Amino acid sequence: MSYTFSLVFSAVFSLMAAFANAETPGVYKNRILFGQSAAFSGPAKNLGSDMKLGIEAAFSEVNEKGGVHGRVLKLLSVDDYYEPDAAIVNTRQLIEDDKVFALIGAVGTPTSRSSTPIARAANVPYLAPFTGAAFLRDPDLANVINLRASYYQETEEMVERLITDLGIDRIAAIYQNDSFGWAGFSGVKRALSKRGLSPAATGVYPRNTTAVKTALIEIQQGLPEAVIIIGAYEPVAETIIWAKKMGMDAIFFTISFVGGDALVQKLGPSGIGVYVTQVVPFPKSTEHRVAAAYRDALESFAPSAAPGFVSFEGYLAGRLAIHALELCGEDPKRSCLIDDLKKSGQIDIDGFVLQYDMNDNQGSDEVYLTVIGDGGIHQPIKSLRDEAIK
Amino acid sequence: MIDSLSQSFSRISVRLYFGISGAVFFTIIASLVGWFSFERIVEAQKPINESSIPLMASAFAVAQDSSTLVAAAPLLTTAATHNDLILIAHKIAGNSMLFQKNLSNLIKSEEVERQSEKLRLLGEKLIGSIDEINQSMVKRFEVQERRLQGQQELEKLGSELIRYLVPVIDDQLFYTMTGYRSLESTRVPYTTHFSPETVTHYRHLAGLSADATFIAQLLASAFSVTDPALLEPLRERFEAVSRGSEYRLSKITNPSIRQELEDRFDRLLAIGKGDDSGFKLRIEELGLEKQQQELLLLNRELGQELVAVAEDLIDTARTIADEATNASEATSVTVRNLLILISVSSVIGAILIAWLFVGRSLTERLEMLSYRMIRMAEGELEKPVTIGGRDEVAQMAKALEIFRRNSLESLRLNKVEKLAEELRGKNSELEKVLEELHRAQDQIIMSQKLASLGELTAGVAHEIKNPLNFVINFTEVSEELLEEILEEINKLAEDISKEERNECREIIDEISTDLIKNLKTIREHGHRANQIVQSMLMMGRSEGEWEMTNINSLFSKHARLAYHNATISNPDFNLKVEEDFDENICEINVNAQDLGRVFLNAVANSCYATEKKHSQQAELENSESVNEAYEPYIKLSTRLVDDNVELSIHDNGIGMPPEVVEKMFDPFFTTKPTNEGTGLGMSLSSDIIRKHGGSIRVSSEVGKYTDIYMTIPANKTAAADL
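Output (structure tokens, whole complex):
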């Protein structure tokens, strides 16, 4: 009798304690802690740091006004050098040791692939990873909340533009030999087969290297009119430079993952005319309100930093997080981020529209076209026919 | 002798003592029986407690420890890390110490000597075996550690090598195909870049890459192979590949690349060669594993044997214990029965005692006794106390009976005495009454006498009265005539000469003076006789009213009168009068006139007495036989005593002898000379007092004093005219 009683009592007590101490992890009296495991070194190092810059600019903007429901937002970032093993270790650490409220701004497909199961097991929200991999868009991955359009959507746009705007049908593809590369390449293949085409040539290069030249040879043999390159900015730049050196006369198209500015820097003059799909608006745009907001935030937070696509995406990720927290009220819970955000319908971040629902964990479906112009400046274009502004 | 014995035995106290002694005796017997029995049980239990139980306990302990030991060895082999191993070994060491300790305890007992010895031997062997396994495990961990290091090293070197090679190969192929060495360099001619040398170079590089991968794989498999036999083929292949790679390296023309590659390959290959090669390590490791397996097997056999012996041991111990237990049980059964017997007989005995002795012999009779006592206390003394027997109760009964009779007697005696007392009382009462009757009788006679006397005197007085009146009147008349004569004489005298007149006047005066004097004397005597007649007449009558009067003032007033009369007639008689009146006396109903007369009379008597003495003293003074001057003194006092007023007159006069006192109240009795007292004063006073319901008495001593006491009831009761 007394045994049952003590059992019940302890159950109730621990329940109460649980509720009492569900102080949700990461949510403190006057701050909320976010975690980021990303590449801060290696060939993708700019991606990590720019995402961080953007997120922190957004956080700083709201912290100035007193935070969300009286709590300021903080970001804790750890380097995984774009390696899955390190990503696993980091994610575990962020969840178990640092007890972050949610993860945000992770970089890379293979790294995400390794870290999302950990986040999922711990029911920790995984916000706005800097990757368009399809597997992350599986609605079963309820804790993943993607910001950007998928690689499929990007590659679809690439193929569409090439075919529609320029009437090109010989399209080759070079891709990185990992899940990211494969994701992008699958998208290209899909887009082409949708139109009854197949790649003119395919080249593969080992990940985390710039050993692209062998792949380039193969591509060259296919005599493509356009080459879609799925990879990090270093190998992409290497490919384009060598291709141009070899005298290949093709349109080069690459994917948002390159991180536009680094690519531009790497490419130098060879960059002119290279098209890049983006999943965020042109940062220097005057048409988009959100771009202006971003620039203002960046100006306040890091006056010396130049606006860029990756940090813009970071800013949008931050804004998404802020919006979600505002939605979740005085006592934010992880479940709120995971469920309620999706049920909340359309989210408008200064004109940048996100839409979620129970079967759709991807907010934006917009793909933006840019081209690298003279002096290495990206420019927004509506069609490939648009003249690059000099 | 026998009789007195039997007598004393029938006494309750004796019986009680006997009874109690009997009970005590019984108790002692029972206790002794109990004690002896328990002693015996304890004796029987001893073997159990001292040997069987400890034996069993030790046996169990040893059996348990054996099992623990048997299980220990496999436990060792489950250790995942060296630290775990140390912990487990430590624990096992503890267990084996315990085993040996318990075993040494066991060895002491002889009954299980055989098994204990066997256990000891087996235990030793087992512990030895465990030790061996432990050491083997330690070694294994050590080797494993080295192996792991080797594996890590392999992985690192492998990936580094590949990482180095990939771009090199890529560049080489590119160059071969395109002729571009670098971005800066110009394109070389086709024949230059697409030549057998460049292709070969590329082939070698590619081959080296394959070699590197293969080597890494071989070594990795070697590290994880479980069958030592398989190591040889792997080693064989490894050596082949390493030879191949050596050859290929030698063909690399670019010195820096070659240097770099040779370096890396050396390090990689070192893992497979030399004394510390992966293969050797693996062989060692596997060997150790095998050894452990064998040891474990041996260990298990030992363990089984140990367990069997331990079981045998327990059986033996149990048997011993059972035997001892049975023995003690038998004893305790016997004892229990005995005790039951004693208890039952005690109970029966007690019941009998209670019923026969206490109940019949004692309680009944005591109750009877107490009942009789109570009835007696309430007064019922008639019934005799009959309680038989020869004990204290009977004695008490006898005593009670005697007591009863005595009480009865004394009760009767008391009655008799009371009656006698009553009689005596009545007697004295009667005597008193008789006395009173006598007195009354005297009084009646006296008053009769007085009454007749009174009548007589009254008659006489009455008769004398008239003549006396004549006497008096005629004297008066005579006086008047005389005066007239004198007048006439005077008238006649006017005609005579002055000398003649004076002479005649002198003679006339003489004669008239004599005549007057004689007439006066006659008249005085006549008055006197009248007074006497009056007094005599007074005797029968009382005049005056009965009224509420203040006795004190009445007394005082009449006393003063008497006193004054006395002092007037004798001027150098200084009488001291003291008055001591009780103020509390209120007015009483008296005949004031009569009573006043009494007071007057009494005080007058006192004055007379003191005067007489005064003159007597004066004579004596002249003859010088007296020291002091006589001071005449009268004390008048009144007291209220109960319902009576007591008056007293004390004088220190001549007093009266007893014969005089006796006759004092007789009428016409007096001690005064004839011309001074009538002798009726006191008799009248007594009469008057009596009429008031009081009494008068006298006490006197000749020559000294006289006291007159008068008592008058304060409230008028009867006793008026007796």
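The longest strand of chain B covers residues 633-641.
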